[in-house]
Amino acid sequence: MAFVVLEECIRCKHTDCVEVCPVDCFYEGPNFLAIDPDECIDCALCEPECPVDAIRAEDEVPADQHLFIALNAELAKHENWTRITKQKPAMPDHEEWKGVKGKLAQLDRNGA
To answer: Which overall architecture, per CATH, does domain 3-83 show?
Structure first.
């Protein structure tokens, strides 16, 4: 079982979680983070670090967010997404996006 980054991360992208990951399994896109399920060791250190509650254990992902399980696996392998191991500032307008529902359309999958 792995941990999963959920919709709440879109357009916020806090990176507190990456600092505590012992296996560096986070990948960064333009406005979202993903966890590689093949690298995650289920240590649970990242979950309490997220200030917007955007990380859950796979078996605790709400039903309306199940698509994020496959999405994390896909994006962690995306050619334009890179491993992130150091904390960075959140997105400049993250406060405006905190708690907003239905952000999937805002996800930038491709990056640069």
So the answer is: 2-Layer Sandwich (3.30)
